[in-house]
C-alpha cells in the first residue's frame, strides 16, 4: 500500500517573543492510503503544528515531508498552494465557509484555484453536495444553515478535489453530541469508501473512532497504536444521500 | 491569464456589491476627481481660448499705437483752467512710421471723438470715427446696406458717413437712412451705408479699451481733420476743457508675422524722440498672443494640479476602504489561502476590486465632466433669474465663459483614475497576500 503522507525526522521551531519554541522535535510518521488516524495530545503538544505541516500551510525547519510521491520540504509558496488546491481536503473546527458564497460556490472554491470550473467539475461539486446530504440547499448561504449542515458543506468542499487525505482539525469541536455523531458517522463512512482521514482532536470519543491513534507530547510522538475498537458504529450503512 | 482576470472580476464585483454604500462613496471620490479634471481643463481652455480669440481678432500681424492721456502732473500749463493740451500720436508720427519702416505694409490712421448726432428732432450720443476705407476690413465690419467709405470720400474730403447698426436704428426708426443727412456739430453728412451689428470687442490689458462699435458713425479721416479739427472742447462744471489730439490710434500692419516683434521695437524707437511724455501706448497683439499662450499653459498646469490633488484624495479614499476591507476579510483570505489560493490570486482579487471602483468612478466622472457645458449654462441661468444683482457683479469672465472639453482630457482622466486604482490598491492587496494563512485562519 502506497502512503498518502510521510514525514521523516521533522522538526519545527519558531521564535515567539524572543524565545525559540520547539513545536516539533523530530517526528517520523507514515500514513498509508486508506488509513484513519487520530492525532491526539494536550494543547502545546505540537499537534496543530503537525497539522499545518501536513496541510502544506507551513514548512518544516528540518526533516522531510512527502505527500503522495512528491517531496515538499523545500517547495515554494506557490507550489504549496497548488498542492493545497489539488491534493488536500481541509475540515476546520469553525467550518470556515466564506459567508458571501452559496453552498455550491463554497464547495467549488478549491476547484476555482485549480483553474476553470468546467462541466465535469461542476458535476463533481453537485455529487459531493448530494453525498453529504445537502443537494437541496445549493443556493443557501452558510448563515442559513445549522452548524452540522455547515460542517457537511466543509466536508463536501474537502472532498471535491479528490485529495490524498482529509485533514480535519477538531471537526466536531463546535457541534452538539447528536450532530457530532452524525459528522463522525460521515467521516467514518468516507474512510470505509477508501478515503484517508487525519483527525486532530483532544476529545477521546472522536479519537476512538479512528483506526490508529497517535499521541503527541512536547513535540514528539509518545505513542502510536492501532485502535482495536475503531468505528464502533451500530449500523454500518452504505453511504447514501440523506433523506 | 486573461481568463483568470475575468473570473476574478466577477468575484470582485460581487464582493463590492456586498457593501453598496461603501463602494458608492469610494466611487464618488474618484468621480469627483475625474470630473474635476475634465471640468477644470474645459473651463481653463474656454477662458484662454476666448482671450486668444480676442487677441487674434486684433490681428497677429498688427501693431496698434494708441494715444493715451498722460498723467495730470506731467502736463504743463497747469495754471490756466481752460488750457488746451496737445498729446497723443501726431500726423507727423504717422507719416514718419509709414515712410521709414519698410516692413510696414499698411498704416491706418484713426481719430475717435465722442459726439452728438442728430436727425430731425432726434439726438443721440456716440463715437465719431474718422478713418480710412480699410477700417471696415481691419475691424471685421460688414456692410448691411449701401457701402462703407471709399478712398474718393477721403481724398475729396466729402461729407459722407456710414452708420453703425444701433445709430441707424435710433436715428432712423421708420425710414431708410441711406441718402439722408445726419447732423454732426454744425455740418451735415450724407449717409452712404449702414453696417451690420458687430459683437463688441473686449479690452485687452490697460492700454486697449473695449470697443462697442454699435454706436459708431464713420466719416473719412480727412473730412474730420478739416471739418472738426484736432481741438475738442468739452464743457465741465464751470470750466471748459480742451483736448488736442491729432490721431487716436494708428494701426500698422506688418508684412510677415516673423517681422512683427522687430518692427514693434523699431516703432517704439521711432516714436520715442518725438514724445517727451508717455502719451501713447504700443500694443502688439502677437506679444499678447504669446503671453496668452504661456498663460494658457500655466492655467492648464495649475488646473491639472488641482485636479490631480482631488484624484489623489480619491485614491486615498480607495486605499482606506481597501485596507479596512482587507482587515475585515482576513479570515476569508486565510480560508482561500488554505484552499489553494496563491499569493497572486489574492493580490488579483483585491486589485480587481480597486480597479472596478476606480473604473466606475472614471466612467461616471467622464460622463459628469461632459455635462460641464450645459450645467454651467444652467447654473448661470439660474443665478440670473434668482439673483440678477449678484449676477451683475460677477466678473465678465465668469459671465461669459464657455467651457471647451479638451479631447485629450477624457482618456487622460480615465487612465489616471485606473492608474490611481492600481497604485492605491496595490498596497492593501499585497498586504492581504502577505498574510500568514495560519494566522489569518485564526483571526476572529
Shape of chain A: globular
Number of structural domains of chain A: 1
* Biggest chain pair interface: A-B, 26 and 22 residues
Main sheet: strands, sense, barrel of chain B: 6 strands, mixed, barrel
Describe this structure as you would to a colleague.
The complex is a heterodimer of chains A (243) and B (444). Chain A is of the alpha/beta class and 243 residues long. Chain A has one domain (3-226): P-loop containing nucleotide triphosphate hydrolases (Rossmann fold). Helices cover 31% and strands 28% of the residues of chain A. Chain A is globular, with a radius of gyration of 18 Å. The termini of chain A are far apart. The longest helix of chain B is centred in the C-terminal third of the chain and has 44 residues, at 285-328. The radius of gyration of chain B is 33 Å and the shape is elongated. The model of chain B has no long low-confidence stretch (mean pLDDT 85). Chain B has 16 helices and 13 strands. At the A-B interface, helix 2 and helix 3 of A face helix 1, helix 10, helix 11 and helix 16 of B.
Task: Write the topology of this structure.
The complex is a heterodimer of chains A (243) and B (444).
Chain A: E1 3-16, E2 19-32, E3 36-40, H1 47-54, E4 62-67, E5 70-71, H2 77-87, E6 88-91, H3 103-112, H4 119-131, H5 147-159, E7 165-169, H6 177-192, E8 197-200, H7 204-207, E9 212-217, E10 220-226
Parallel strand pairs in A: 3-8, 3-9, 6-7, 7-8
Antiparallel strand pairs in A: 1-2, 1-4, 4-5, 9-10
Chain B: H1 2-16, H2 20-58, E1 62-67, E2 84-87, H3 91-100, E3 104-119, E4 122-131, H4 134-138, E5 143-146, H5 151-155, E6 160-163, H6 165-171, E7 181-184, E8 187-195, E9 216-220, H7 221-227, E10 231-236, E11 239-245, E12 249-254, H8 260-271, E13 280-283, H9 285-328, H10 330-338, H11 343-370, H12 372-386, H13 388-393, H14 396-400, H15 409-433, H16 437-442
Parallel strand pairs in B: 2-11, 4-9, 6-8
Antiparallel strand pairs in B: 1-12, 1-13, 3-4, 3-7, 3-12, 5-8, 6-9, 7-8, 10-11
Helix pairs in contact in B: 1-11, 2-9, 2-11, 2-15, 9-11, 9-15, 11-15
Amino acid at each position: 500500500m502506497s502512503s498518502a503522507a510521510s514525514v521523516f525526522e521533522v522538526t519545527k521551531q519558531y521564535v515567539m517573543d524572543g524565545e525559540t519554541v520547539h513545536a516539533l522535535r523530530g517526528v517520523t510518521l507514515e500514513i498509508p492510503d486508506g488509513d484513519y488516524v487520530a492525532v491526539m495530545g494536550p494543547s502545546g503538544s505540537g499537534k496543530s503544528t503537525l497539522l499545518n505541516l501536513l496541510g502544506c500551510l507551513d514548512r518544516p525547519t528540518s526533516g522531510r515531508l512527502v505527500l503522495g510521491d512528491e517531496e515538499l520540504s523545500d517547495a515554494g509558496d506557490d507550489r504549496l498552494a497548488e498542492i493545497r488546491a489539488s491534493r488536500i481536503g481541509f475540515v476546520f473546527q469553525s467550518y470556515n465557509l466564506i459567508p458571501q458564497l452559496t453552498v455550491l460556490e463554497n464547495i467549488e472554491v478549491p476547484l476555482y484555484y485549480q483553474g476553470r470550473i468546467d462541466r465535469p467539475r461542476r458535476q463533481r461539486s453537485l455529487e459531493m453536495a448530494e453525498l453529504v446530504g445537502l443537494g437541496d440547499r445549493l443556493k443557501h448561504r452558510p448563515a442559513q444553515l445549522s452548524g452540522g449542515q455547515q460542517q457537511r458543506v466543509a466536508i463536501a468542499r474537502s472532498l471535491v478535489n479528490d485529495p490524498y487525505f482529509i485533514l480535519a482539525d477538531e471537526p466536531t469541536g463546535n457541534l452538539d453530541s447528536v450532530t457530532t455523531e452524525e459528522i463522525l458517522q460521515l467521516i467514518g463512512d468516507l474512510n470505509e469508501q477508501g478515503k484517508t482521514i487525519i483527525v486532530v482532536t483532544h476529545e477521546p470519543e472522536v479519537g476512538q473512532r479512528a483506526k490508529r491513534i497517535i499521541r503527541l507530547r512536547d513535540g514528539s510522538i509518545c505513542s502510536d497504536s492501532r485502535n482495536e475498537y475503531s468505528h464502533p458504529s451500530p449500523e454500518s450503512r452504505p453511504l447514501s444521500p440523506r433523506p | 491569464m486573461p481568463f483568470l482576470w475575468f473570473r476574478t472580476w466577477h468575484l470582485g464585483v460581487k464582493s463590492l456589491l456586498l457593501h453598496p454604500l461603501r463602494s458608492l462613496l469610494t466611487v464618488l471620490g474618484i468621480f469627483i476627481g475625474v470630473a474635476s479634471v475634465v471640468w477644470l481643463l474645459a473651463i481653463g481652455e474656454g477662458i484662454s481660448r476666448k482671450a486668444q480669440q480676442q487677441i487674434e481678432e486684433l490681428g497677429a500681424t498688427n501693431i496698434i499705437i494708441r494715444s493715451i492721456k498722460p498723467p495730470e502732473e506731467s502736463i504743463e500749463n497747469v495754471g490756466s483752467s481752460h488750457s488746451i493740451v496737445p498729446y497723443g500720436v501726431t500726423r507727423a508720427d504717422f507719416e514718419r512710421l509709414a515712410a521709414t519702416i519698410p516692413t510696414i505694409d499698411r498704416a491706418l490712421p484713426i481719430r475717435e471723438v465722442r459726439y452728438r448726432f442728430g436727425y430731425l428732432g432726434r439726438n443721440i450720443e456716440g463715437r465719431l470715427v474718422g478713418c480710412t476705407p480699410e477700417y471696415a476690413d481691419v475691424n471685421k465690419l460688414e456692410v448691411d446696406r449701401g457701402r462703407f467709405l471709399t478712398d474718393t470720400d477721403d481724398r475729396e474730403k466729402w461729407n459722407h458717413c456710414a452708420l453703425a447698426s444701433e445709430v441707424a436704428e435710433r436715428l432712423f426708426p421708420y425710414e431708410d437712412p441711406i441718402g439722408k443727412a445726419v447732423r454732426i456739430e454744425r455740418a451735415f453728412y450724407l449717409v452712404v451705408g449702414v453696417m451690420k451689428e458687430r459683437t463688441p470687442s473686449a479690452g485687452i490689458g490697460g492700454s486697449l479699451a473695449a470697443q462697442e462699435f454699435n454706436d459708431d458713425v464713420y466719416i473719412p479721416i480727412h473730412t474730420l481733420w478739416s471739418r472738426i479739427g484736432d481741438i475738442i472742447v468739452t464743457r465741465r462744471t464751470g470750466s471748459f476743457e480742451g483736448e488736442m489730439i491729432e490721431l487716436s490710434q494708428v494701426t500698422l500692419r506688418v508684412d510677415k508675422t516673423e517681422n512683427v516683434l522687430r518692427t514693434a521695437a523699431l516703432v517704439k524707437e521711432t516714436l520715442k524722440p518725438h514724445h517727451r511724455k508717455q502719451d501713447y501706448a504700443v500694443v502688439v497683439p502677437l506679444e499678447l498672443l504669446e503671453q496668452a499662450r504661456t498663460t494658457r499653459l500655466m492655467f492648464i498646469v495649475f488646473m491639472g494640479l488641482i485636479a490631480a490633488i482631488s484624484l489623489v484624495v480619491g485614491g486615498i479614499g480607495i486605499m482606506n476602504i481597501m485596507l479596512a476591507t482587507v482587515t475585515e476579510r482576513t479570515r476569508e483570505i486565510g480560508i482561500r489561502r488554505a484552499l489553494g489560493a496563491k499569493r497572486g490570486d489574492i493580490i488579483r482579487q483585491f486589485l480587481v476590486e480597486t480597479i472596478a471602483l476606480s473604473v466606475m468612478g472614471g466612467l461616471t466622472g467622464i460622463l459628469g465632466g461632459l455635462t460641464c457645458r450645459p450645467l454651467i449654462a444652467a447654473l448661470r441661468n439660474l443665478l440670473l433669474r434668482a439673483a440678477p444683482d449678484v449676477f451683475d457683479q460677477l466678473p465678465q469672465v465668469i459671465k461669459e465663459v464657455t467651457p471647451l472639453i479638451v479631447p485629450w482630457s477624457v482618456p487622460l482622466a480615465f487612465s489616471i483614475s485606473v492608474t490611481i486604482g492600481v497604485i492605491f490598491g496595490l498596497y492593501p492587496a499585497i498586504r492581504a497576500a502577505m498574510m500568514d494563512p495560519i494566522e489569518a485562519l485564526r483571526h476572529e
